[in-house]
Amino acid sequence: MIKDLSHGLRVVPSRDERTRQEFVASLRLHILADMAASMRARYEQRVLPRFQQEHGRSPADGDEVHDAMQDERYFRFYSSIRYNAQEMVFRSVIPVVDRNLEDLNNRARARPGTVVLNPGLTVPKNVTSIDVHLSPGSYHSEYQPDDVSPGAIYDNSINVFAFNQMGRDIDDIGHSFANYVRLAFPDFRPKAILDAGCTVGHNTLPWAHTFPDAEVTGIDVSAGLLRYAAARASAFGTPVRFMQMNATQLDFPDASFDLVFSSMFLHELPLKDIRAFFREAHRVLKPGGLFLNMELPPNNKMQAYDRFYLDWDSYYNNEPWYKLFRDQDFPKLCAAAGFPADKFVEAVVPRYTYTPEAEFAARIASGARFDDRTGRLGEEIEWYAFGAWKQKP
Ligand SMILES: C[S@@+](CC[C@H](N)C(=O)[O-])C[C@H]1O[C@@H](n2cnc3c(N)ncnc32)[C@H](O)[C@@H]1O
After folding, report:
1. pTM of the predicted protein model
2. Which of 42, 100, 245, 358 has the fewest beta carbons closer than 10 A?
3. In this structure, are strands 382-389 and 344-350 parallel, antiparallel, or unpaired?
4. The CATH number of the domain where 314 resides is what?
């Protein structure tokens, strides 16, 4: 079921390790497909009617659904299994990375790619103060000189976590939004592209594939991720530079980029850092440039049950800023950073690498529609993104 990573930093699990990873991936698929459907049925058949009887109305938001679900045994069962499966993702991957670490670090040293580290950078507390989404050591812990283990753990764990639903090289989000920009805005051809919070560059490299004339830069705060990202890009032969930098304080001059992108990044930032990043994105964009963030859809576009369902990670997966972010008014966030209100952009797109191009283009043309596929990992997932154009002079 799990496909091996296809690049030169691949670590090969033993047969037992692979079997364990396959089990965890299948368990996650079972939880997110079968158990999620059963949980929704119980909500509709038991929890909702009980709530309506008590309150004379339906739940108004995700928090009310969450409260009402507390007494439902199936929800507790679902949450317990899902929490444990999340821990098992890392338990199934870390021993494989550990066993291969010296060799992996040597392989990365042999083809380092383009990476500019800043040893003086303080890694922010949103990364260091918790094990983000239950990943032991979070994104930044290092164990050997020139260590790439944070990158290797992330790459291999997402491969198990995503059970083949996020692209061959876990890069479908990048391909989907690079091609969205290519197809939706045919007169816009970015020459300088920034990916903020790029982790290992899964969704950075597709921009270089789609816009081969562009200079593409990925930034992140973790050195161990960036060493891995650069060596991974080098293994693919894709020219992308990686730099260690805080997105809230970008070390680039004003008007440096045509496009500033991020994916799955904002929900891991405290709100004040989201605001600071938006101001920085506005500053480093050229006039007429595009700011685009792939993210979970906003709560104000979802039904109460779907809000609750997608906010599970905030309640139980060590992602404390996730719900606060989804509760924001996204056009207002952009406007507060200086983007004109009438330049707000929003997209819901199918997965580019799983969809025929004509179907993908037709779906883009039909506009942003929200339903229970939006942002929900599975075979039917549609990705969401929002942002804005910077005012032209
Ligand atoms: C969920 S990951 C992003 C995933 C990645 N964009 C992708 O598409 O595969 C969040 C990343 O943000 C980074 N990060 C957190 N706070 C940051 C900050 N203030 N500036 C830059 N990167 C940050 C973390 O180190 C982590 O790599």
Report:
1. 0.96
2. 358
3. antiparallel
4. 3.40.50.150
- Residue 197 covered by a domain: yes
Report pLDDT digits (tens) over 209-236.
999 999 999 999 999 999 999 999 999 9
Question: pLDDT-derived band of residue 292, with 50, 70 and 90 as boundaries?
Answer: very high
Q: Give residue 66 CA to ligand 1 midpoint distance, Å.
A: 28
Output the ligand 1 site: residues, CB below 6 A: 124, 126-127, 139, 173, 196-199, 202-203, 219-222, 225, 246-248, 263-265, 268-269, 273
Apex 244 CA angle, 89 and 139, nearest 5: 20
Q: Report the nearest-CA residue for atom 24 of ligand 1.
A: 197
Q: What's the CA-to-centroid distance between 265 and ligand 1, angstroms?
A: 5
CA distance 154 to 144: 17
Residue 340 lies in a domain: yes
193's CB contacts (< 8 A; 6+ apart) are 207, 211, 214, 215, 216, 217, 257, 258, 259, 260, 261
- Domain co-membership, 366 together with 235: yes
190 and 92 part of one domain: no
The count of structural domains within the chain is 2
Q: Domain for residue 234, yes or no?
A: yes
Say yes or no to pLDDT of 257 above 90. yes
Do residue 277 and residue 370 come from a single domain?
yes
Q: What is the mean pLDDT of the chain?
A: 96
- Cα–Cα nearest to 97, from 41, 44, 144: 144
Ligand 1 atom closest to Cα of residue 140: 25
Q: Are 154 and 225 in contact (CB under 8 A)?
A: yes
| Centroid of chain to Cα 248 | 18
Band (18; pLDDT cuts 50, 70, 90): very high
